[in-house]
Amino acid sequence: MLSMASSPLLVVVTVVVLRNTFQFRASGSTCDILYEAFDRYYRIVFDKFTVRRGKKRLQFVPAAKRLSSLDVAVQNPCERYPSLEMDESYDLSVSQSGATLTAPAIWGALRGLETFSQLIYFSSDGYLQINLTEISDQPRFRWRGILLDTSRHFLPKEIIYQNLDAMAFNKINVFHWHIVDDNSFPYQSRDFPEMSIKGAYDPYTHVYTQGDVSDVIEYARLRGIRVTAEFDTPGHSQSWGNAITYLLTKCYSGGHFNGNYGPIDPTVSTTYQFLDSFIKELSEVFKDHYLHLGGDEVSFDCWKSNPNITDFMKKMGFGSDYSKLENHYMAKLLEIVDRHKTGAVVWQDVIDNGVQLHPDTVVEIWRDKEQAELAKVTASGLRAILSSPWYLDYIGYGEQWESYYKYEPINFNGTDAQKALVIGGEACLWAEYVDSTNVISRLWPRASAVAERLWSPKTVTDMNSASSRIEEHRCRMVRRGINAEPAIGPGFCPYEAYSGGE
Amino acid sequence: MLLSFECDILRFIAIIWFILKHAACFASGLHSSNISLPLGQSQAAGSRVRGRYDSVNKDNDLRVSSPSVNAHNNRADFRNVYHAPNVTSTTVLPPTPNPLVDPSAKEQVMWFDDSLTYGLNATYDYRFKLRRAPLPRMGSPWPLPQSYVTSNISHLVNSKSLSLTVTGHSCPILHGYFERIKRNMFGKCEQSGETEFYQSPGTDAVLHSLSITVLKKCSRYPYLEMDESYDLVVKSSSATIISKEVWGALRGMETFSQLIYQDRNGQYLINETVIQDFPRFKHRGLLLDTSRHYLRKEVIIDNLEAMAQNKLNVFHWHIVDDQSFPYESKVFPLLTKLGAYDTQTHVYTHEDIEEIIEEARVRGIRVIPEFDTPGHTFSWGYGQRHLLTPCYDYYGKPNGKYGPVNPTLKKNYRFLKALFQEVMSVFKDQYIHLGGDEVPFDCWLSNPFIKKFMSRNKVTDIRKVLNLYERELLKSIVEIGRNRKMGSGYIVWQEVFDNEVKLNPDAIVQVWSGDAYNVERVINAGLKAIFSTCWYLDYISYGQDWDKYYRCDQLSYRKLNESLFIGGEVCMWAEFVDNEGITPRIWPRASAAAERLWSNQRVTNVHKAAPRIEAHRCRMLKSGLKVGVLSGPGYCPEYKHKRTMPCNDQTANNKERLNGMQSSSSIIIFLIIVIIVLLFIIILTVVLAQKRVISTIVHVVIGGTVQRKLILVFVLFSSSWFIWWLIRQAWIYH
To answer: Which residues contact B226 (CB under 8 A, 6 or more apart)?
Structure first.
């Protein structure tokens, strides 16, 4: 998917793209997304290339050698928000008589424009050139995501914007926003504002206001990216408890409350009343159909210590199986989510504990032995996304993108129907050791390897081709203002941006 | 008549100057004046990993002691917060006093005992109990001074009127440094925040000025034996620094700036403090590698600033290597032309180097370039014929590969002498780094001419050839030094010492592999040693590693004679980093090493250091440096009760960059304005002054004397030159 600007197979003739004569033209249905994209890609194509050596005199280019326009034909009327079912396929043709981009939906047109902009390169005689090319393209997986964690370290809105830009350059279509966690609660709630006042690192500077959230969603929408927010419960919710005082389980030691709190208390009705109104708010604020409910790494120790919970377990006849208690909670939560007409994504722990899930639910796999887990999840008829091989927060010396690239997501014994239920994957960047200073350079271009694995056909496995293309793609991102770090050892980009201190 | 003509011109020029000046303001005000950087072809792929060939590039991994990659794919390991081991916890701590800013408040940080699973990361937030990074202890200096006595009596600092008084010898760099620490402390955009200034209870005096006394005459460049000691006293309303040399005063000012912290109202405070400080080691360096990846000048200067904030005093510039030759040689221009990645954009010109040396000088940092020979020289071979040794295959045929510098040719030594002659006139420090590491002998051994050379000189051991080479090279360095005021000294990697090359007594040996035993061997031979094994920052791993650099176990168990053991260096080899990510990768990890090199040997408690280094990180962030994360989840306190982006935060830069997209259009607008102004001049001259001026000119040309003709030519020439100058000024201003 990272286009080959110089592959000899495709080179027949090249045509020149001139700043003052080239234009984007819409010949099908249009909307703000398309016009914004024209504007954006015009700037990417022409402003991000500046003639490096001003002395060279450009010669006149005859009309036959010029590309005058790209005709973009979107066949169906625009949808307002991208969705899991969106159609991202497109056909792109660059010929001597002109270039055309045909896509059934607006989202395909966005992907096609990205490819078109990647095909243009700077020739040695000072022109912007494009090779004559025929492309027919569609993604292999529908769910291609990046997880950013804004709880361990807060990320300013501008950094999220930059990441959304980079995601568009890599045809990633889901921004999985792990917005809150134990460590802080930066989401400024509409109905429960005290949650961020008491739970954020700083209630003034380290929060996302309602305006910020809708800005991010809008920025993503214009790039064909879905924003799936994650509000992880019942574990990973310590920062919620400062404001909603009855929510968390009190931990006991020696028969007394010891001052610590555990996961959400699943035994009291106030919990579900709160969750009902909070989920209602979230389903209205976040426009995507899916909401990530978390459900991972629930520790039972605190539940075990609490006498009220022990009583409840007895009453319900759960015995000493605390996963049944978790089930009880998740079932009720999923019921609430369903009531608000929202789809759910959960971490694999939920299904490992044997919770009955709605068929609309998507299960995200993150632990080891992921292929066996995929087989298990899809056998029960649920859809799955995979993130185990792509935990980008684990760093090491040397080239890492190769292992991300080589990983084949569907590699288990199962029926075709089962395999069709694997709908994608996500690269996860947990933020224990990254913040706004290094999140971009850590994520890109390593996530680009994941992006190609999730978009391109299964057969695209040639490492030689990939390494030269990812190197070019990295330089392209750098030129477009993304601080992507080197993918492969020593080398250079013709243009090196820099943003830093003074 | 001529006079009135001149007056007209002058009046026009005044008007034009006014317009131009405002036009420039106008144009740059429209968009951030981010002049777009040079850029070029989209295909970079072809030329990467140059110089990766078998014989020379034995393997850079030779430098690895053991690259540890601890990527356990187990999220539960570190995300699980519920098993708090052995914590005798009390109830939730009261919200005040705030431990972040009130040093008098009881230390609220509580550590887990079980260091295996939680390590340093385990600490409670004072509001909700959680594993997170230690809370920054603002107002505490890093690296820790040798003697540091502080009280909890605090005084307000007036950020607006804080001024510098210099008594004793006045050195110009003091004032520049003072302005810089003020900017780092108070930010560039202070006026945008609320700056109401009030006296809070518990503070009486307001600190208005810092006075500095330098006892000795100023020296222009920092040097190995410079005196960096200083005394700093903050008492009631005055702060005083006394130092022997100007370099100590710089270190003292840095410490002074670190003592200042903000309370939650945004007021700047400083505690009464007495500090007597001096460095443990003379040579505290950072190696940057600009050959594997080119580093832009701005990135290098950012790192110099970070070094100053960490009191590092040597920038070891590994400027060239196998992969590229970005140093601009005027004596051998082909070296640069054929050896650099890109001859126009990826080169350090003499002006660039001069600027970097100057930026380093004003921060008290020495710049020592490294020109590594005879190995690590592949990129030299493009521009200098017969320099490298051709390697031969098993059948005695050249196999097209090249090895280290050919030690048998006399011509090569002449070349090296001329090159080093140039290098040592460009770089001002007494010392130069000559490399000498990782010389692969297999290529030399395969070459029949070298075999012949060996038999002719009755040498059987190939190491002896290296020995001969080094001896010849060192001789020419010493000769070059005779014509330099400061003389010449050299640093070599430890292999040169291991190969028993005879070194001058003032030579420094850099130990990069093995432990302190190697340092001991060097010292026992009577030579100076610096140590780097601990601090190879290019080897990254998941999680917190600064404590490893802080402890530096390889050194700790050995008692060494510190008169010859003169310091250490943090190394950032650039195989896998470049401009985009190098600063957050070096800092704040290098800060840990900086304290090891500056502070007393007894300062070893990582737990005590943790809140201080967190504060130091926040301070560096505030000064606008992009520094990464130290020890897990957390944040830097911002005491602006306003939802504005901190001015110096890098996000502001990103915003600028987003706007910078339109910079090219601002240049076009500016050009249009210039053209309009020029047309305006011409029209005015022609229309208004037509009758008088033209008739005067015609009159003079036809009938005037020679003198008058000359005056006319002079007036026309000088006025047109003046207009040109005005345009240029406006351009530069823009």
So the answer is: B219, B245, B247, B313, B364
3-state secondary structure of A252: strand
* Whole-prediction pTM: 0.81
Q: Determine whether the interchain pair B651/A436 forms a contact, defined as Cβ–Cβ distance below 8 Å.
A: yes
DSSP assignment of B640-676, as one string? --S----TTSHHHHHHHHHHHTTHHHHHHHHHHHHHH
Distance between B303 CA and the closest CA of chain A, angstroms: 10
> What's the length of chain A?
502
Q: Which residues pair with A228 in a beta bridge?
A: A176
The angle that helices B706-733 and B695-703 make with each other, rounded to 10 degrees, is: 140
- Region B708-733: mean pLDDT is 78
How far does A73 lie from chain B, in Å, by closest CA? 28
What CA–CA distances, in Å, run from B4 to A273, B18, B709?
A: 90, 21, 17
Inter-chain CB pairs, A–B, below 8 Å: 310
Question: What distance in Å separates the CA atoms of residue B644 and residue B640, rounded to the nearest whole number?
Answer: 8
Active-site residue (options: A297, A335, A408, A432): A297
Torsion angle in degrees (nearest 10) through CA of A25, A30, A36, A40: -30
Cβ <8 Å between B579 and A498: yes
- pLDDT tens column, A450-490: 999 999 999 999 999 999 999 999 999 998 889 999 999 89
Q: Are strands A174-178 and B147-157 parallel, antiparallel or unpaired?
A: unpaired
Nearest to A119 by CA among A134, A130, A107, A128: A130
A396 and B627 within 8 Å at the Cβ level: the answer is no
**Which residues of chain A neighbour B635 with C-beta distances below 8 Å?**
153-154, 184, 201-202, 206
Calculate the alpha carbon distances from B363 to B49, B286, B308, B315 in Å.
35, 14, 6, 11
* Catalytic-residue membership of B6: no
For residue A12, what pLDDT band results from cuts at 50, 70 and 90? low
pLDDT in tens, A425-454: 999 999 999 999 999 999 999 999 999 999
Closest Cβ opposite residue B42 in set A202, A476, A492: A476
3-state secondary structure A29-94: CCCHHHHHHHHHHHHHHHCCCCCCCCCCCCCCCCHHHEECEEEEEECCCCCCCCCCCCCCCEEEEE
Those of residues 308-367 in B touching chain A at CB distance below 8 A are 323-324, 341-342, 344-346
Please give the Cα distance from B452 to B459 (Å, whole number).
Answer: 10
CB proximity list for B724: less than 8 A, separation 6 or greater = none
Q: Which of A152-161, B120-129, B603-612 has the highest mean pLDDT?
A: A152-161
Greater confidence, B732 or B62?
B732
Q: Does B50 touch chain A (CB under 8 A)?
A: yes
A123, A485, A488 ranked by CB distance to B577: nearest: A485
A204 touches chain B (CB under 8 A): yes
Say how many CA atoms lie within 13 Å of A130 toward its Cβ. 27
Handedness of CA A218, A219, A223, A229 (dihedral sign): negative
Partner B, chain A 76-135, Cβ-Cβ below 8 Å: 120-124
> CB of B390 within 8 A of CB of B409?
no
pLDDT tens profile B209-245:
899 999 999 999 999 999 999 999 998 778 999 999 9
State the DSSP string of A214-247: HHHHHHHHHTT-EEEEEEEESSS-GGGTTTSTTS
DSSP string, A112-149: HHHHHHHH-EE-TTS-EEEE-EEEEE--S-SEEEEEEE
DSSP string, A435-493: -TTTHHHHHTTHHHHHHHHHHS-TT---HHHHHHHHHHHHHHHHHTT--PPPSSSS---
Nearest CB to A6; choose among B43, B76, B654: B43
